[in-house]
Amino acid sequence: MNERQILIVEDDPQIRNFIQYTLKREGYSSLTAGTAQGAMSILVRERVDVVLLDLGLPDYDGLEVIHKLRQWWDGGILVVSARDQDREKAAALDAGADDYLTKPFSATELMARLRVTIRHLGRSSGTPQSCVLRTGQLTMDLDKRLVTLEGQPIHLTPMEYNLLQLLFRNLGKVLTTKTILNEIYGVGYGTDTQALRTLTAALRRRIEKTPAVPQYLITEIGVGYRLADLG
Which positions bear 4-aspartylphosphate (predicted)? Predict the structure, then answer.
């Protein structure tokens, strides 16, 4: 049995049962709630590592639930919703969700997204982290300020380095353009994404063998960017 416990917050019994069955088959224990209030009650009294949260709950809007949770709870939040507009995904991620899964989805995709959320949860805990970050053949040594690809050093500009470090520290997680702009350029920069597009294109030319078909720096169209977690 996997030690992680998952809370499924979903008001549709069929979807809730499907998710619970999938989690049980994969060795995860789970709890369920059909409302936001029910979920809050469980979180107060039970240990929960990840919340699978439907945005369309009968008592509270899911975005409001994310905002409330992030005021006092630091576990993983994987949004599961039929709302597929880019702005809805971006709003959920900006509110504090770790990832977004659009209905309908397969059991395979659900588990892949859940594993990424759990890995991100481990990196976000209070435990000390290694100064060497790695995904696939791409590494980043924070102490030496050295980036290598397949063992060969890569020269990055300060802005490229800052962007890669931000993505590495959120490995596997989608970061919205708003989040990246605030972190890289500052909160007063505004919403012009042209500079960010130019920066990501430049970084891709440094770290990708084929920038037009990126392996590491993935665009989530209409939402933001993700550094692929390749182990």
Answer: 54
Give the C-alpha separation, 188 to 85, whole Å. 26
CB 170 within 8 A of CB 227: yes
Helical H segments across the chain, by residue range:
13-25, 36-45, 62-69, 86-95, 107-123, 158-169, 177-185, 194-207
pLDDT digits (tens, 9 = 90+) for 161-194: 999 999 998 898 899 998 898 888 776 666 678 8
**Residues 6 or more apart in contact with residue 120 via CB below 8 angstroms:** 76, 98, 170, 171, 172, 173
Distance between CA atoms of residues 50 and 55, nearest Å = 15
pTM comes to 0.70
Contact 70, 124 (CB under 8 A): no
DSSP label at residue 188: T
Say how many CA atoms lie within 13 Å of 110 toward its Cβ. Answer: 25
User: 118 versus 192: which is more confidently predicted?
Assistant: 118
Question: Residue range 55-60: average pLDDT?
Answer: 92
